[in-house]
Amino acid sequence: MHSLYSAEDTAITEKVLFIDYDHCLTDDTAQKMSMAAGDKEVIIEKSCPENLDQVRYLFFLIEDQTVETLRWIEEQLEELKSKETFTLIMTVNRPTKYLFPYLANGLNGIVSLRHFMTRGQRVLDTLDQFGVFLEQYLHRELVTDLQRKKLKDRPIKRLVLRTEDVKYILTQNEKKVLQHILDGHNNRKIAELMYLAPSTVSTVISHLLKKLGANDRTDAMVQIIRKGWVDAVR
């Protein structure tokens, strides 16, 4: 186990362990991480050692979120369940919400390498106080993700066209007609709602299908759902 501090420094008791799984740390970066950790002893390893005595914070540093890497993290989290150590995923690039599921497997947080190098002491202090740390921009992502999962099992009441996504593709009449199609209305009902002649509605739908590359009304709905141009109201 390689420490950035001298073995003669006996005043330091708490250790910060970084597992550089993808071997992406340079000497300069390692030194910045050491400074960011304040009075904690910083240790950098290529794999997780068996002896974690006095290791209070453990970071899995990864560069790419490959299947192999994530499977390795799952295995490590399983082994660390009985340890009294804060475990976090640290990413070289900006972390994504796809790491959230690991929070349910004993993970204490997600942080980027850059964030730690500038606010390392604050990260460690937050862990000591609350037992968890997420970069600020991830808070909203997590709330949104939880809300989506909460609503997932509720029935869809209505599909709403995201007009901003098609404002340069469809005309106003085409957008309105498309929304009425999403609402399940036939041509005659759409004509009544829009105060148009049925023939005009048929012409608008014909132009609409051509722009979407759809064969019929049902295919048009499938196309815009696939493109992500609708929101589901539950």
Name of the top-level CATH class of the largest domain: Alpha Beta
Q: What strand line-up does the widest sheet have?
A: 1-3-2-4-5-6-7
Mean pLDDT: 86
> DSSP helix count?
8
Q: Alpha-carbon distance between the termini?
A: 53 Å
Order of helices and strands: EEHEEHEEHEHEHHHHE
Q: Tell me the number of structural domains.
A: 2
Largest sheet, strands/sense/barrel: 7 strands, mixed
List low-pLDDT spans: 1-12
Content of β-strand: 15-25%
What is the annotated CATH architecture of the largest domain? 3-Layer(aba) Sandwich
Helical content (DSSP H or I, runs of 4+): 40-55%
- CATH homologous superfamily of the largest domain - what is it? Response regulator
Kindly report the CATH topology of the largest domain: Rossmann fold
Rg value: 27 Å
Record field, number of beta strands: 9
GO molecular function, one term: DNA binding
Organism: Salipaludibacillus agaradhaerens
Domain HTH luxR-type: 163-228
Pfam families: GerE
Question: How does this structure look, described?
Answer:
Residues 163-228 form the HTH luxR-type domain. By secondary structure, the chain is α/β, with parallel strands linked by helices. Helices cover 43% and strands 18% of the residues. The chain is built from eight helices and nine strands. The strands form two sheets. Strands 1-3-2-4-5-6-7 form a seven-stranded mixed beta sheet, sandwiched between helices. The chain has a two-stranded antiparallel ribbon with strand order 8-9. Strand 6, helix 3 (113-130) and strand 7 form a beta-alpha-beta unit. The longest helix has 18 residues, at 113-130. It is elongated. It starts with a strand and ends with a strand.
